[in-house]
């Protein structure tokens, strides 16, 4: 079985400061890892993914994530947060061998960026 | 290119009533999914369709049925709504190729069962 943990329900950061949203995963085999963002009353938007290759993945809106196989982590980062980054962030995992592409989502982390 | 569309956006049902949530995608994706989102629980998979003509149960299928009408459309039916089905429902689709497993989501349907 696969699982995702987002240990922080909420992350508070001041605008201009670095933002980190943590994610750890458990999956047998090679993982596909994803980050999504959800703005209020909207659907989830794809931010970035790790499939293979470089452990540092760059995505939309200046976000990046680092895959760490030994720590089974895939933390989302942004060097300088904006107020408009305030949203709900989800980490998700599926297995490389899962032919149905079923995603297992974490519970989500609310990011609050204050001016 | 509308992506994934869902209707209705909002719905209020009484316990025991039935309804169908509609979903369509125009990205020629093979796979489609129905999720429900509840506070603090992330998204949970209800049903999915790996390709046209196939459907299968996800994590929380009880109380729901689905139909993959064609490649574009995937509907979710509540036969006898219960208050526990109050939730936000999202449809998603994916090309599900080796280089493209990401899913694209619709705007959601907010359902309240009284």
Model description:
The complex is a heterodimer of chains A (115) and B (114). Helices cover 0% and strands 52% of the residues of chain A. With 115 residues, chain A is mainly β. In chain A, strands 2, 5, 6, 10, 11 and 12 form a six-stranded mixed β-sheet that branches. In chain A, strands 3-9-8-7 form a four-stranded antiparallel β-sheet, with no helix packed on it. Chain A has a two-stranded antiparallel ribbon with strand order 1-4. In chain A, a hairpin with a 4-residue loop joins strand 8 and strand 9 (73-78). Chain B has 114 residues and is mainly β. Chain B has no helices and eleven strands. In chain B, strands 2, 4, 5, 6, 9, 10 and 11 form a seven-stranded mixed β-sheet that branches. A four-stranded antiparallel β-sheet of chain B has the order 1-3-8-7, with no helix packed on it. In chain B, strand 5 (43-49) and strand 6 (56-57) form a beta hairpin. The radius of gyration of chain B is 13 Å and the shape is globular. The termini of chain B are far apart. The chains are: A mainly beta (115), B mainly beta (114). The A-B interface holds A 4, 9, 32, 34, 36, 41-46, 49, 51, 90, 94, 99-103, 105-108 and B 4, 31, 33, 40-45, 48, 50, 56, 58, 90, 92, 94, 96, 99, 101-108.
Relevant terms:
heterodimer; A: 115 residues; mainly beta; six-stranded mixed beta sheet; four-stranded antiparallel beta sheet; globular; B: 114 residues; seven-stranded mixed beta sheet
**Overall radius of gyration of chain B:** 13 Å
Q: Identify the quaternary structure here.
A: heterodimer
User: Count of helices of chain A?
Assistant: 0
Helical content band of chain B:
under 10%
What is the overall silhouette of chain A?
globular
The largest β sheet of chain B comes out as: 7 strands, mixed
N- to C-terminal distance of chain B: 36 Å
Which structural class best describes the helix and strand composition of chain A?
mainly beta
